[in-house]
C-alpha cells in the first residue's frame, strides 16, 4: 500500500486514496493531543470534504502513548492515525508501530524537523511572554540571557517540567562557546527569585492576572490565545532563538484503514495547515508550501537527544529549579 | 453452606477481584524489569538525596491538612447534629460544595483570594495590615487550602457517626456534674472514635497524594512534596512505572499501618453504642454561646464556600481574570456560560458522568455494606484482610490503575474495552476504599446484641441484615454514596486513558478547558456543576432521610 501510493502525486494520489478509503468503509480513528477547540474544527472539515466518519480520541500526550503501547501489546488496532508530541511519537515510531508514510507535503517540512516514522504537523514554540501592565520599556526581555538579570526577581516564572526547553537552550549556549559553568550560573540567576509554576496554561492565566510579570518559556499559541481575549500579555518581538518542538502525525502500521489514514495525513499537511494557522497555531508547512519558521532564528528540540538523555536532563532541570527554593515564610 | 457464608464469599471475591487486578499489575511492574525480579524501581524512586526533605514536607503538609479538616469537619458535624445551632441550612452547602469544585479551580480561586501580589483579601486588608498580609504560597497556605477542601469528607463521616450514637450517655455525664467540654472530650469523642479514625486515615492518604495544591501553591516557593517526585518519575521516558510503583508501595505501607492502628483503637472503644434501648437524639441547647457559634458557622461558610464560589462566578463572567475594577465589571458577560453549553461533548459527558457517578456509588456502597459486616461482625477467620484489600486502590496512581484495567480488558473475551462499562469498573475500584471506610465506621457503632436478638427471635441472616443492620448504618452508607457520587465527577487520570469517543465524561471536558487555558469557561462549568450536583445531592438526602434512621 505505502509503495503503491508513494509513487503517486497530486490529484492522482488523492483520487486513488479516496477510492481506497471508500473500500475501507470511510471510517477513521484518530488519537490526538491537539487541543479540543482546534481538533473540533479540523476534523469536521475533513469529514465533510470526504464523507468520512472520524472517531476522535483526545488525551494528553503521555496518556496517548500509554494507550497505544497497551493496545498494540494486545494486538488491538485502536488508532489509524496518532497525532501528538515529538517525544511520544518517537517512542511509538521506535517501537516500529508506525508505517512508512511518504509524500510531497512531508518533504516540504523544514529539514531540521525530518524524522523517520512520523511527520511534523505543527510546532510548539517556546518564547518569553510578559504582562504589558507590569513589564514595559527596558523591562521587556530581548535575549534569553536577559532573564538572568536581577530586575526580574520576584516577577519571572519558570515551569517545573520544561526540561526540553532547558536542554535545548543549554545546547544552544554551548554552541555559542559558553562554558558549562557560565551556562549553569546563568540558569541559576534566572531561577534565583523566580516563581516556579506547574502547567503552561495555568501560567498564562496567572500572567494575565498579574501574578507573574514574565513567563520564561510560554507556548506562543497560549500567549496568542490570551491576547486574543484582551488579556494584557505579549511576546512580540520574539526573543530569539525561539525554541521549537515538533508535534506530528504517524499512520499506524496495524491500521485497518491505512489508505484513509494516508488521506488524512495528506489533507492535514495541506488544507489542514490553513485551519491550524487560522487558529493561532504554527503549522509545519505554510499553506503556500513555504516554511513557517523562515526568518526566525530557531533552535529545534533534539528529539533523539530527549529520548536518550531525557531522564538525565529532567533530573538536572529539577535540581536547577530547586535553586529557587526559599524557606517557607512561616 | 449457610447463605451468610455464601454472600460473604461472593462479596469477598468481587471486592478482591476489583482491587487485586490493579494491585497485581502494580506489584508486577514494580518488582520486575526486562531481566526479571528487580528492585531498581525503589532505588530510582527513593534514590534522590532530597527524598528526606520531600517526605518531611509531605508529612507536615498531610498531618496539618488532615488535622485542620478533622477539627473543622468534626466541630461542624457536632453542632449540626447535636445542638440547636442556627443556620442549619448552610451546613448542607458547606458539606458538599468544596467537594464539587475541582481541586484545580479551588486552588486557583484561593490564589486570586490570598496571593500576596494580587489577592483580593490582601487588598481588603492592606489599609490596616500593610501589603501582602496573607500569603497562600507557604506550607500554611497549602494546609489551609487542602484542609478546607478536604473538610467535607470529615463532615460527612462525623455527621453519620453523631447521628448513630446514643446521646443519653452525654446526658448522664452532664447530669453527673461534668462540664460540656469535659463531656465532649471524655464521652462524645470516644463514642465516635471509629469514624474519626477512618476519616483521619483517608485524609492523611489523600493529602499525601494531593497534587493540585502542592503543584500550584508549593512549587512557587520551592516547597516540594512526595507527589512532586511521583510526577517527576512519571514524566520520564519511557514512563518509569517501576519507580512510580515503588512510591505507591511506600504509601501502601503507611496506609496498611494506618488501617491496623485504626482497627486496633476502634476495638473496645466506641463500638456498639447503638443498642437495643431506644434513643432519640435531642439537640443540646447552646444557650448564650448560640450567637458565637452561629457567627463561626457563617464565617466558615463564607470562607470555604462563598468566597471561592464568588471568585469562580466572577472569573466566569470575565473574558480573562483581572482584579476587580470598573473596566472589569464593564467587560462582564455570559459568553463563557454560552460557550460551555455549546461545547459539543458536554451534554453526553454530563449524562455519562451522572450514570457513572450514581452507578459506581450504588454498587460500591451495596458491596461495602456487606463487606463491612464481614470485616466487623462475621467472625470469619482472616476477615481483616478484606479491609486491607479494599483499601489498596487508594494508593494506586490513577494512570497506573487505568493502564492495569486496560491491560486486563484488552485481553478479555468480554466486549468491555471501549465501552462505558470499563469506566464503571475503574470507578468502582477507585472508590472502594472510601466506601469501605464509611461502611466500616457505621458498622462499628452498632452493638452486636441487636443482631443477636433478631437471630434469636427467628429472623434469618438476610432478614436481620436487611431489617436491622441496614437501616441502622444507612446514615453512613448515604454519606459514602454522596461522597462517591460527587467526587466521581472529578476522576480524570484513569478516565482519560479508558474513555472512547462518545463515552466522554465531564472531568475530561474540565481537563480540555484547563489544557486550553480557558479559565473563564472552566469557571463557568464549575459553577454549573456546583448547581447541578447540589440539587441532585439534596434529592439524595431527601430520599435517604425517608429510608434511614430518623434522627430529627
TrEMBL record, chain A:
Matching SUPFAM superfamilies: Periplasmic binding protein-like II
Alphabetical list of Gene3D superfamilies matching this protein: Periplasmic binding protein-like II (3.40.190.10)
Database matches in Pfam families: SBP_bac_6
Keywords from the UniProt entry: Signal
Listed PANTHER family: ABC TRANSPORTER SUBSTRATE-BINDING PROTEIN, THIAMINE-BINDING PERIPLASMIC PROTEIN-RELATED
Protein name: Iron(III) transport system substrate-binding protein
Organism: Modestobacter marinus
TrEMBL record, chain B:
Record's keyword annotation contains Signal: no
Phylogenetic classification of the source organism: Bacteria, Bacillati, Actinomycetota, Actinomycetes, Geodermatophilales
Keywords linked to the UniProt accession: Cell inner membrane, Cell membrane, Membrane, Transmembrane, Transmembrane helix, Transport
Transmembrane segments: 7-28, 59-79, 91-113, 133-162, 183-205, 241-261, 292-317, 354-376, 388-410, 416-433, 468-489, 522-541
GO biological process: transmembrane transport
PROSITE patterns: ABC_TM1
One cellular component term from this protein's GO annotations in UniProt: plasma membrane
Record domain ABC transmembrane type-1: where: 55-262, 350-540
Cell compartments where the protein resides: Cell inner membrane; Cell membrane
Pfam families: BPD_transp_1
Record InterPro entries: MetI-like (IPR000515), MetI-like_sf (IPR035906)
This protein's name: ABC transporter permease
Keyword Manganese: no
SUPFAM superfamilies cross-referenced by the UniProt entry: MetI-like (SSF161098)
Signal peptide positions (record): none
Protein topology in the membrane: Multi-pass membrane protein
Protein family per UniProt: Belongs to the binding-protein-dependent transport system permease family.
Predominant cellular place of this UniProt entry's protein: membrane
Amino acid at each position: 500500500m505505502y509503495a503503491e501510493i508513494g509513487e503517486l502525486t497530486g490529484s492522482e494520489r488523492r483520487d486513488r486514496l479516496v477510492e481506497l478509503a471508500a473500500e475501507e468503509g470511510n471510517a477513521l480513528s484518530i488519537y490526538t493531543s491537539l487541543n479540543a477547540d482546534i481538533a473540533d474544527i479540523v476534523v469536521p472539515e475533513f469529514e465533510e470534504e470526504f464523507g468520512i466518519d472520524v472517531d476522535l480520541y483526545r488525551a494528553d500526550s503521555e496518556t496517548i502513548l500509554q494507550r497505544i503501547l497497551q493496545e498494540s501489546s494486545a494486538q488491538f488496532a485502536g488508532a489509524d492515525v496518532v497525532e501528538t508530541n515529538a517525544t511520544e511519537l518517537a517512542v511509538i515510531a521506535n517501537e516500529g508501530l508506525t508505517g512508512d508514510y511518504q509524500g510531497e507535503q512531508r518533504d516540504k517540512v523544514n529539514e531540521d524537523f525530518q524524522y523517520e516514522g512520523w511527520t511534523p504537523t505543527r510546532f510548539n514554540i517556546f518564547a518569553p511572554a510578559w504582562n504589558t501592565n507590569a513589564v514595559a520599556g527596558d523591562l521587556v526581555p530581548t535575549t534569553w540571557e536577559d532573564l538572568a538579570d536581577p530586575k526580574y526577581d520576584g516577577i519571572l516564572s519558570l515551569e517545573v517540567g520544561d526540561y526540553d526547553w532547558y536542554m535545548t537552550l543549554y545546547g544552544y549556549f554551548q554552541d555559542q562557546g559558553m562554558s558549562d559553568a557560565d551556562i549553569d550560573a546563568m540558569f541559576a540567576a534566572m531561577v534565583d527569585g523566580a516563581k516556579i509554576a506547574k502547567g503552561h496554561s495555568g501560567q498564562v492565566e496567572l500572567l494575565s492576572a498579574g501574578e507573574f510579570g514574565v513567563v520564561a518559556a510560554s507556548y506562543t499559541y497560549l500567549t496568542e490565545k490570551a491576547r486574543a481575549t484582551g488579556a494584557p500579555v505579549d511576546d512580540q518581538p520574539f526573543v530569539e532563538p525561539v525554541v521549537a518542538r515538533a508535534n506530528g502525525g504517524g499512520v499506524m502500521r496495524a491500521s485497518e484503514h491505512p489508505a484513509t489514514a494516508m488521506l488524512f495525513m495528506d489533507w492535514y499537511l495541506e488544507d489542514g495547515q490553513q485551519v491550524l494557522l487560522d487558529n493561532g497555531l504554527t503549522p509545519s508547512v505554510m499553506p503556500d508550501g513555504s516554511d513557517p519558521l523562515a526568518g526566525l532564528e530557531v533552535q529545534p528540540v533534539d528529539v533523539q537527544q530527549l529520548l536518550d538523555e531525557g531522564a538525565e536532563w529532567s533530573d538536572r532541570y529539577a535540581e536547577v529549579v530547586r535553586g529557587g527554593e526559599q524557606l517557607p515564610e512561616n | 453452606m449457610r447463605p451468610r457464608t455464601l454472600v460473604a464469599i461472593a462479596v469477598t471475591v468481587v471486592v478482591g477481584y476489583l482491587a487485586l487486578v490493579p494491585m497485581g499489575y502494580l506489584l508486577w511492574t514494580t518488582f520486575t524489569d526486562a531481566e526479571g525480579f528487580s528492585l531498581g524501581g525503589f532505588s530510582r524512586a527513593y534514590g534522590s538525596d532530597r527524598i528526606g526533605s520531600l517526605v518531611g514536607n509531605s508529612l507536615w503538609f498531610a498531618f496539618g491538612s488532615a488535622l485542620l479538616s478533622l477539627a473543622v469537619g468534626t466541630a461542624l458535624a457536632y453542632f449540626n447534629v447535636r445542638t440547636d445551632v442556627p443556620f442549619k441550612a448552610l451546613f448542607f452547602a458547606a458539606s458538599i460544595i468544596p467537594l464539587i469544585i475541582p481541586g484545580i479551580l479551588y486552588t486557583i480561586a484561593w490564589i486570586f483570594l490570598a496571593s500576596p501580589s494580587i489577592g483580593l483579601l490582601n487588598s481588603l486588608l492592606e489599609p490596616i495590615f500593610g501589603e501582602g498580609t496573607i500569603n497562600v504560597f507557604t506550607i500554611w497556605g497549602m494546609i489551609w487550602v487542602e484542609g478546607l477542601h478536604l473538610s467535607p469528607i470529615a463532615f460527612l463521616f462525623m455527621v453519620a457517626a453523631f447521628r448513630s450514637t446514643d446521646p443519653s450517655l452525654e446526658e448522664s455525664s452532664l447530669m453527673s456534674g461534668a462540664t460540656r467540654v469535659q463531656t465532649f472530650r471524655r464521652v462524645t469523642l470516644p463514642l465516635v472514635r471509629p469514624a474519626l479514625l477512618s476519616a483521619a486515615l483517608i485524609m492523611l492518604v489523600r493529602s499525601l497524594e494531593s497534587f493540585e495544591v502542592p503543584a500550584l501553591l508549593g512549587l512557587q516557593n520551592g516547597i516540594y512534596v512526595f507527589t512532586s517526585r511521583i510526577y517527576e518519575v512519571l514524566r520520564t521516558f519511557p514512563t518509569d512505572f517501576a519507580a512510580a510503583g515503588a512510591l505507591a508501595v511506600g504509601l501502601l505501607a503507611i496506609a496498611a499501618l494506618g488501617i491496623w492502628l485504626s482497627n486496633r483503637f476502634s476495638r473496645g472503644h466506641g463500638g456498639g453504642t447503638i443498642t437495643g434501648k431506644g434513643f432519640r437524639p435531642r439537640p443540646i441547647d447552646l444557650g448564650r454561646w448560640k450567637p458565637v457559634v452561629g457567627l463561626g458557622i457563617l464565617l466558615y461558610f463564607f470562607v470555604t464556600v462563598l468566597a471561592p464560589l464568588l471568585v469562580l462566578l466572577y472569573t466566569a463572567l470575565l473574558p480573562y481574570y483581572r482584579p476587580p475594577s470598573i473596566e472589569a465589571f464593564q467587560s462582564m458577560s455570559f459568553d463563557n456560560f454560552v460557550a460551555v453549553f455549546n461545547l459539543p461533548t458536554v451534554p453526553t459527558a454530563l449524562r455519562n458522568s451522572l450514570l457513572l457517578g450514581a452507578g459506581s456509588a450504588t454498587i460500591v456502597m451495596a458491596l461495602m455494606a456487606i463487606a463491612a459486616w464481614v470485616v466487623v461482625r462475621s467472625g470469619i477467620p482472616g476477615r481483616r484482610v478484606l479491609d486491607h484489600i479494599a483499601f489498596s486502590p487508594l494508593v494506586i496512581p490513577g494512570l497506573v490503575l487505568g493502564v492495569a484495567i486496560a491491560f486486563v480488558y484488552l485481553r478479555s473475551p468480554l466486549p468491555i474495552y471501549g465501552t462505558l462499562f470499563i469506566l464503571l469498573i475503574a470507578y468502582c475500584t477507585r472508590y472502594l476504599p472510601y466506601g469501605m471506610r464509611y461502611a466500616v465506621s457505621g458498622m462499628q457503632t452498632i452493638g452486636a446484641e441487636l443482631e443477636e436478638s433478631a437471630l434469636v427471635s427467628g429472623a434469618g441472616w438476610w432478614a436481620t441484615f436487611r431489617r436491622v443492620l441496614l437501616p441502622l448504618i444507612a446514615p453512613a452508607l448515604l454519606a459514602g454514596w454522596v461522597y462517591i457520587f460527587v467526587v466521581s465527577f472529578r476522576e480524570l487520570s484513569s478516565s482519560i486513558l479508558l474513555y472512547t469517543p462518545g463515552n466522554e465524561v465531564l472531568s475530561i471536558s474540565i481537563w480540555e478547558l484547563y489544557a486550553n487555558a480557558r479559565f473563564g469557561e472552566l469557571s463557568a462549568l464549575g459553577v454549573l456543576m456546583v448547581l447541578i450536583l447540589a440539587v441532585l445531592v439534596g434529592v439524595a438526602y431527601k430520599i435517604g432521610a425517608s429510608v434511614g434512621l430518623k434522627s430529627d
